[in-house]
Design a protein that fits this description.
mainly alpha, Rna Polymerase Sigma Factor, Chain: A, 2 domains, about 180 residues, 8 helices, Arc Repressor Mutant, subunit A, elongated
């Protein structure tokens, strides 16, 4: 399989197959992220589709990037924020990007006790994550649910690498405390 950087360069050169490869490779993760940010599956789908449409429309002006996933996740984040702002203006109601809880897909054990234990642990974790501030929740989501590096998260959120590390450390400490109670 081609390296992501090569696919990106092919897209920049106008190769429509490269766009399709990026779409197939990143769509699920980007969609999950957009839904998480918007709390709405339809908006999430529209946002990701819009990002890929813009990629194609602007392929000649796309920059050379050090991390294609970071570029795509940041584009989805910015597009989601823009979409929510537009909807907020239209409906004149406030939409908070970071409300809600993270959902982590677990495989259910066949044994009833194991299932109940897993459900309880998941509820504890979700409750603990919901007590974190929105930025900490987003960093946790990007790191553990989308397996992005600290550097990629820093680029997506437009914050320093060390800030991401600090927030992650603080978040994990808070989660450990809350779950032990």
């Amino acid at each position: 399989m081609e390296a992501t950087a090569e696919i990106w360069d092919a897209l920049r050169a106008g190769n429509v197959n490269a766009l399709e490869k990026l779409f197939r490779k990143y769509f699920d993760g980007l969609l999950s992220y957009a839904i998480r940010l918007s709390q709405n599956e339809i908006i999430g789908q529209e946002v990701v589709q819009e990002v890929f449409l813009k990629l194609w429309e602007t392929h000649k002006r796309l920059p050379k990037v050090s991390s294609v996933p970071a570029f795509l996740y940041r584009a989805v984040r910015n597009q989601t924020i823009d979409e929510l702002r537009n909807q907020q203006k239209k409906s004149a109601r406030f939409v908070e990007i970071s409300n809600g809880t993270l959902v982590h897909p677990f495989s259910i054990e066949e044994d009833l006790i194991a299932r109940e234990t897993e459900v309880f642990r998941r509820q504890q974790l979700q409750k603990a994550i919901s007590l974190l501030n929105p930025l900490q929740q987003e960093i946790i989501f990007l790191r553990f649910y989308n397996q992005l590096s600290y550097q990629e998260i820093a680029e997506i959120l437009d914050i320093k690498y060390q800030t991401v590390r600090n927030y992650m450390s603080q978040s994990i400490g808070k989660l450990k405390k809350k779950i032990k109670k």
